[in-house]
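Review form for a predicted model. The reviewer records the input and the model, then writes brief findings.
Reviewer: anonymous (R2)
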Amino acid sequence: MGRSLLDWRGWTGFLAIGFILLVVLPLMNAWAAPGSAFSLPNYLVPLLGKYACYAILALSLDLVWGYAGILSLGHGAFFALGGYCMGMYLMRQIGTRGVYGNPILPDFMVFLNYKELPWFWHGFDHFWFAAPMIVIVPSLLALALGWFAFRSRVTGVYLSIITQAMTFALLLAFFRNDMGLGGNNGMTDFKDILGFSVQADGTRAVLCFASAVALAIFLVIAGAVVGSRFGKALTAVRDAESRMRFLGYRVEGYKLFVFVLSAAMAGVAGALYVPQVGIINPSEFSPGNSIEAVLWVAVGGRGTLIGPVIGAFIVNFGKTWLTGALPEVWLFALGAMFIAVTLFLPRGVVGLWSQIRTRGATRKARVPA
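Model under review:
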C-alpha cells in the first residue's frame, strides 16, 4: 500500500493490544461470572465500543481530509444520520412495552398527539430495511452536497464552512417536534436489538465486538482505496488539483466517490454507537462534535489511516478521565492539545513515532562496525 500509509509490521503490538481491548476482554466479560477476576466494570465494555465508533468516524474523516484535502467540518451529521436510522429501528422494537403501550406509535409521538406513523418510519420495524438505510441516508446527503460543491469547484475554507453550515441546519431541523424524530429529546429507552436485550452483558459485548470488526473492515477498505491507482490519483488531486485537471482527470469524480464512501462509514459508526449509549438526540449534529473529530485526526496523524484511530482513543480517554476528575478543565485542555499538536506535532503521534524510529535507524547506521 505504499509508505504513505503505515508500516504494518511496526504496529503489530498496537493492533494486538487493540484486539485484546475490543474483542477479547468484552467477550470474556460476557462469559465470566460476576465478581470474578475476568469481569469488567459495567461501564467499561460500552465505553470501549463507543471509542471504536469514534475511531471509525475519525478514519472516515481522514479519508477525505488526509488523502483528498477536503476538510469537512460536518462529518458529525453523517454520524448522526446513521444513528437516527438505528434509533428508529430500536424504537419500533419497543412495541407495547412503552410508557403508553401503543404498539405502533413511539411514546414521544403519542405525547405529541400524532394520529398515525409518519410515512418515513414505515419499514424501520425490520432490520433488513434499517441496515441499508444506515448507509444510504448519509450517502445520499453526501452525494447531493458533494455533487453541487465539487462541480462548482468550491474548495478550501469555503467548503469547510458549507459542511459546517449543513450540520448546523440539520441540528436546528431535528430540534423541531414536527420532524417526527423526537425533537430536542431525541430517542431513548431502547429495549431490544435483533431480539436481544440491549442492556444484557452479552449484547454489549457483541456490540463492542461488532464495532471492532467494523473498524478493522473499514481500515482494510480504506487501505485498499488509498493504496490503489485511484488513491494515488486522489493524493495528486489533493496536492495539485489544477495540474490534474490540465491532464484530463475528472477531479469531481474522485472527490465525490471518496466523500460518499466516507459518509457511509460515518453512518455505520453512528448506528453502532446508538445502542451502546442508549440515546440519540439532535446534539449529535452539533458542529462542535465535527470539529472535535478533526482534532482526533490531527492528534493521531493526518493521512496515515491508523493515526486517526489512535487519536480518537487518546483524546476520548483523556476526555473521559478529565470530565470525571476536573470537568471544568476539559475544554481548556482540548484547546491546549490542539495548539500543542499544531506547533509541535504537525504529523501527529504517528509522525512522531516515525521520526523517533528514523533517528534511531540513522544513529545505528553511523556506528562503525
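Findings: The radius of gyration is 22 Å.
Further findings: Residues 229 and 235 are 10 Å apart (CA to CA).
Recommendation: see findings above.
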